[in-house]
Specification:
Order of helices and strands of chain B: HHEHHHEEEHHHHHHEHEEHEE
Number of helices of chain B: 13
Radius of gyration of chain B: 36 Å
Shape of chain B: elongated
Number of domains of chain A: 2
Helix content of chain B: 55-70%
Helix content of chain A: 40-55%
Mean pLDDT of chain B: 74
CATH architecture of the largest domain in chain A: 3-Layer(aba) Sandwich
Structural class of chain B: alpha/beta
Structural class of chain A: alpha/beta
Radius of gyration of chain A: 17 Å
Largest sheet of chain A: 6 strands, parallel
CATH superfamily of the largest domain in chain A: Response regulator
Distance between the termini of chain B: 67 Å
Low-confidence stretches of chain A: 1-9
Oligomer: heterodimer
Shape of chain A: globular
Number of strands of chain B: 9
């Protein structure tokens, strides 16, 4: 599956809405990934603030939303909150990929806890971004090295006993996968390294994302605020 | 009255020796302590003088009250002995210190003096009955005045919730005491019969005043808080502007000048980005400069990566999980890591950002540096090229750690460094 998605095009299409308050940035992303014939990405709408975003997303029902974290009107978290029903819709759910210039821990953890399927920084290359969009469309999670580092840190640095054993701890394997992501490995390379299939890597990453979103530990938020790691 | 005679000269003194009421270790208004600090006398002496004046003909009260009203509360004017009622703990919290002998003596003397004064006062005939109500009113006024001092001090030290409630209770107690004293006055004067009428009149006047002055007061306090917010905002903006002006604008100018050298432009932009991020997201209270020697692993990794990035113009993405203080072994590991970063930037930087990952897990510190360059085979490196063998592998081994170089399946080279921490 990943082999097909990385090449993009090849008959696959994904409808995307861009949410960012900087018009220049939207134009740049549009130019980089919006050439539908080669990338397979079709930008069906743009929005510059929270209200606009909710309106455009509801109207166009895209498969993936590229969501900026800092937005006038409450930020990306507010968009996620108001689109919660679209995210959990049984048919054609809308999926969110956070895309931000900020890589402060509290911003990152905030949008992920809000329901985004992944987080990439704006320095990402066009090809990687297209790849990430397709991955999110498939329902997989997208972890940048930095996000993987935050998650490892958040799940490691607590003395409090977990409220829910299943959610509040990462398995050994999940930890290994995250560590390799943090070291800059692509999913394919991780699969080779750990002698598992890419599909297994994806399911591990998705499990980590689920734990991050559902984990009971209030420490997660507190951790993010306290650390303000860059 | 030596004390009363002094202040006019002293207030003209240079600002260094300005007279303040002491905020530390005061018992009432801080007048005695402030004076003592100003005159360079032990505080007990000043207190005794006041007490003597007080017992003599009640003049002490008057002098003290005048000082209290006129002299501002300050941090200066501390007495020669730096002890206060409260001991300030290293964490900034204040707790009650064991009272020293002088203060106990002063308190006891004050109590005896006051009792003696009250019983000995004989104003003749009916007037005696007014002593107690006057005292009640006096104590109430003192309580309320101290309240004002506390309100002023709140701008220096943010009071906690509990403290604020305590202050409110104290203020109310002061008002109640004054009210009680006044009521007793009226009862004693035999006008108890008209008490109801008088009270009604008083309440009517108060209500009228509140109605007239209320909106104005509310408006004033709103204006004040608004002005404060504006000032804070302006200060913040000035700080941001100063920073942006100093570094960001400077960098943008440099970038325009060097527009035809993409390498230099990239290096400048990257360095500025890093600096701005550090500035925006730096932890509160961490006013560390970049130039200072790093004390922890995370700082050291980031600093090394930043320097390599600046020097070689290749972006390094740094991810650090956990942190610990640097020790000798870890310092060696940092040097090896830096060497690895330099190699990665030099020979593998073409393939994109160099990935630096450091993790503290239990007692082990793990550092990995990977590039996406053409790869690197240690066996094919000539024996005379000592860079990798000595400065990375050898250095780690000498300090009790391990180093591994390997080709990454997807292309590029990864250097893995492991070291045990010296302390727990």
């Amino acid at each position: 599956m990943t082999e097909e998605t990385t090449t993009g095009g090849a008959g696959r299409r994904v409808r995307v809405v861009l949410v960012d308050d900087h018009r220049m940035f939207r134009t740049g992303v549009q130019a980089e990934i919006g050439r539908t014939e080669t990338t397979g990405v079709e930008v069906v709408g743009e929005a510059a603030d929270v209200d606009q975003a909710v309106t455009v997303i509801t109207a166009t029902r895209p498969e993936v939303v590229l969501l900026d974290v800092h937005l006038p009107g409450g930020g990306g978290v507010e968009v996620l909150r108001r689109c919660a029903s679209l995210m959990s819709a049984p048919e054609n759910p809308v999926r969110f990929l956070a895309l931000s210039v900020s890589d402060a821990a509290e911003d990152v953890i905030g949008v992920i806890r809000g329901g985004a399927r992944g987080y990439v920084t704006k320095t990402i290359t066009g090809a990687d971004l297209v790849d990430s969009v397709f991955r999110v469309q498939d329902g997989d999670a997208v972890f940048s090295p930095r996000l993987a580092g935050f998650v490892l840190d958040a799940f490691a640095s607590t003395d409090a006993p977990p409220v829910d054993e299943d959610l509040d701890r990462l398995t050994q394997r999940e930890r290994e996968v995250l560590r390799l992501i943090a070291r800059g490995y692509a999913y394919k390379e991780i699969a080779k390294q750990l002698f598992i299939s890419v599909k297994t890597v994806e399911s591990h990453v998705s499990a980590v994302l689920r734990k991050l979103q559902l984990s009971n530990r209030h420490e997660l938020t507190r951790w993010a605020t306290a650390r303000r790691l860059v | 009255m030596p004390v009363a005679a002094r202040p006019p000269e002293t207030t003209d003194d240079p600002p260094v020796r300005r007279l303040y009421r002491s905020a530390d270790g005061r018992m009432l208004g801080g007048v005695a302590r402030g004076l003592a600090g100003h005159l360079g006398l032990p505080v007990v002496w000043v207190r005794l003088v006041f007490l003597a004046l007080f017992v003599a003909d009640g003049l002490g009260v008057l002098v003290y009250a005048v000082f209290w009203i006129v002299v501002p509360l300050g941090v200066g004017g501390r007495s020669a002995e730096p002890r206060s009622v409260f001991a300030t703990a290293p964490d900034g919290r204040r707790r009650l210190r064991k009272p020293d002998k002088g203060q106990i003596v002063a308190l006891v003397a004050l109590a005896i003096g006051a009792a003696g004064f009250v019983t000995s006062v004989d104003l003749g005939g009916d007037a005696n009955r007014y002593v107690w109500p006057t005292l009640l009113v006096g104590v109430g006024v003192v309580l309320v005045w101290r309240q004002v001092d506390n309100a002023r001090r709140a701008s220096w030290t943010e009071p906690g919730r509990r403290k604020r409630i305590f202050q409110l209770v104290r203020g109310l107690a002061g008002v109640a005491l004054v009210g009680m004293g006044l009521t007793v006055f009226m009862v004693v004067r035999g006008s108890a019969a008209q008490l109801g009428t008088a009270l009604t009149a008083a309440i009517a006047v108060l209500a009228g005043m509140a109605l007239l002055a209320g909106p104005w007061l509310v408006r004033m306090s709103q204006d004040l808080s608004e002005e404060r917010t504006m000032r804070i905002r302006a200060q913040e903006r000035a700080e941001v502007a100063a920073h942006v002006h100093d570094s960001v604008l400077h960098t943008l100018t440099l970038i325009q000048r060097n527009a035809d050298e993409p390498g230099e432009v990239r290096r400048l932009a990257r360095a500025q980005e890093r600096e701005l991020r550090n500035w925006l997201y730096r932890p509160e209270g961490n006013g560390k400069d970049d130039d200072q020697e790093p004390e922890t692993l995370a700082e050291a990794v980031k600093k090394n990566a930043a320097e390599v990035e600046d020097k070689h113009g290749v972006p390094l993405e740094v991810v650090v999980v956990g942190d610990c203080p640097l020790d000798e072994g870890l310092a060696a590991q940092m040097q090896a890591a830096r060497e690895a970063m330099v190699n990665a930037a030099k020979y593998g930087g073409e393939g994109g950002a160099v990935q630096v990952y450091a993790e503290v897990e239990g007692r082990t510190v793990f550092v990995s540096v990977r590039d996406r360059g053409p790869g690197f085979d240690l066996d094919s490196v000539p024996a005379d090229r000592m860079g990798v063998r000595e400065s990375i592998i050898g250095r780690m081994r000498r300090n009790g750690g391990t180093a591994r170089l390997r080709a990454v399946p997807g292309g590029g080279t990864e250097v893995e460094l492991e070291m045990e921490r010296a302390d727990g």
